[in-house]
Specification:
400 residues; alpha+beta; Alpha-Beta Plaits; four-stranded antiparallel beta sheet
Amino acid sequence: MHINFSRIVFSCLEALIYMFTIHMILPKSARNDWKRNLILYSVITISSFFLLKDHMVSILLFSTIITGAIFIINKVNVYIASITMIITYILITIASLISTIFGIFFYIGQYDYRFVLEGHDYKVMLLKMSITVLIVYTYKIFNSLFNRKIKIQKINPRPVLFINVVYVILVILFSCELIVYLPTIYADVLKIGSLNSLLFVGISMFFIASIFVLYITNIYLFKSSDYLSIKLSSETDALTGVFNRKAGINHLKERMQNVQHKKTPLTICFVDVNNLKDINDTHGHKLGDSLIKNVANIISSALREGDEVARLGGDEFLVIFDKCSIEQAVHAWDRIIERFESFNLTEREIYDISVSVGFAEYNYKLNITHDTLIELADTEMYKNKQRYKRLKGKNRNAKW
C-alpha cells in the first residue's frame, strides 16, 4: 500500500513538472483556463502513473497520449502539439539528467544508485522540479533570442531547430548510456573510492562541452544563413521580391546552357507594363509602385515550378519558361492574362492591369547569345505595344 501511495505521489509531482513545462512552451493564445488545465493535468497524472516507465514503447505511448490531449484540450494544430511535447520531453529529460548527476554526487558511498535514476526519491524529485523551472525559463530566453535572430535574418527556422533538437537528443542518449552502464558493466570502475565525484565531474564537463559545441554550431548556422540572406538580397528586386535584372539574366544564361545539354526548348517572354508613366504622373509613384508589385505577384503566382520572373527595370519584366516551346509558353501566358482580367474586375484599384508582351524561343540548334534572345522578344513586344496604342487600350490584354 505504501509503494502504491508513493507511486501516486511521484506521478502527481511528475505530472506537475510536465504541466508547468507545457504551459510555458505553448503560445499564450493556446493556454487554457484552470478547468481545462485541471483536465490536462489529470490526463498527464494518470498516463505517468501507468506509462511513464523506462521502456521505449511506454514512453512513446505516453508522449502520444499527451500530444493528443494538448491537441484536443488546448485546441491547437497537430504540429504545435507535437513540437510542444517534443520540447517538453527534452527539457524534462535534461532536468532529470542534471538532478541525477547531483544525486550521484550527494549520495556518497552509494554504488548502486539506480534508485536515483528512477527518480523515486523526494530529494531528487524536488531538485528535479527546481532544475526544470530554471531550464524552462532558460529555454524561454533562448527561444526569444532565437526567434528574434530568425526574424531579423528572414530565414526558415525549421532546419536550424531540427539540427539543434537532433544534437540535444544525441547528447541526452549518450549521457543516459554513460550514467547507467559505466558503473554497472565495468567491475573495476566500482572499486574506485571516489566514483561518485569522478562521475559528477566527468558528466558535468561533458555537458559544458556539449553546450559549447551547440553554441558554436548555432553561430555557424546563422553565419551561413547570413551569407544566404545577403546572396538572396543581392539577387532580389527590392520592390517586387522577384529576381532583379542581374539575377534574372544569370538564370537565363544557366537555363540556356541546360538547353544545350538536355536538348529541351526554352521560351522567354518580355513584358512591358502599359500606362505606368501616366499613372505615375496622374496619381503619383506610390500607386505606380502598387501596379508594378501587383503585376509581379500575379505573374509569380501563375508560374510553374522551375519557371522564373525577373524585373529588368522600371516597367519591364522577363519571364523564363523552362523546358517549354513557344506554343506552350503562349498557352501558359493566356492563363496569366485571365488572372489580370480577374484582378481588373474584382479589385477596386484606380488602375487596370495592362501589359504588352513578346515571346522568343531558344533551342539547342540556335547559336545566339542571351542578349540576342532578349532582343528578339523585345522586338515582338514592341509590335504588340504598337497594336495596343492603335487600339487605344480597348483590347488591354489580348490573348495570343
